[in-house]
Amino acid sequence: MGHKHSREEILEGALATAFVDGLSRLSFGRVAKRLGIHDRIVVYYFATKDELASEVLLALGAQLRETLAPVVTAHMGDHRALARAAWPVLARPDADPVFALFFEANGLAATGLAPYGRVVPQLVEAWIDWAAELLEGDADTRRAEAEAAIALIDGLLLLRQLGGAAAADRAARRLGVTT
Question: Which UniProt keywords apply (predicted)?
C-alpha cells in the first residue's frame, strides 16, 4: 500500500496550513484539504491532533534555528551581542508570520491547552540551551545570558507583532540591539 505523500510532505502541509489558519484551527481535515488527500492519510502519519500540532511546533523551531545559523556564531560576549546578531534576521517582514504562529502557541500554552502547555516550554528551553552554547563564560553565566537574550528578543518580537515594526525598531535602538 503506497501513499501519495510522505510524512515530511504532510508535515510541510500542516505547517503551511497553520500559517494560513492558525494553530488553534489546525486539523486533519484542513491539512488533508490543502494537500488534496483524504484525512485518513494524515492520521496514518500523525495519530493524534496533539502529535500533529507538536510536530508543527518542532518544525517551526528547527526552521528558525536554520534561519539564524548563518548570522549567529559561537562565542558571543553577552545577550546583547546575540540579540544584535539575530535581530536583523528576525525583524524582517518575512519572519513576522513565523512569530505570529509562535506567539499564538505561547497563548495556547498559557491557557494550558494540550499539547502547547507541554511543547512550548520545551521549545523555549531548547532555545535557551541553543543560545547558551553561543555565549562566553562559565555554564551559569552562559545560561543567565541566554535567558536574557531570549527574553530581550522575544520581547522585541512581541512588540513588533502587537505595536508594529517601527515601535520594535525604536525599542531595539533604545535597548542597544541596533544603532
Answer: DNA-binding
- pTM, two decimals, is 0.89
Residue 31 and residue 85 in one domain: no
Q: How far apart are CA 151 and CA 172, in angstroms?
A: 13
CA distances from 55 to 48, 79, 82 (A): 11, 29, 27
Residue 30 domain boundaries: 1-47
Work out how many domains the chain is built from and give that number.
2
Give the C-alpha separation, 103 to 169, whole Å.
19
Q: What is the pLDDT tens value at each position of the chain, 179 positions in all?
A: 445 789 999 999 999 999 999 999 999 999 999 999 999 999 999 999 999 999 999 999 888 888 888 888 878 999 999 999 999 999 999 999 999 999 999 999 999 999 999 999 999 999 999 999 999 999 999 999 999 999 999 999 999 999 999 999 999 999 999 98
Q: Give the domain CATH number at 16.
A: 1.10.10
Distance CA 53, CA 59 (A): 10
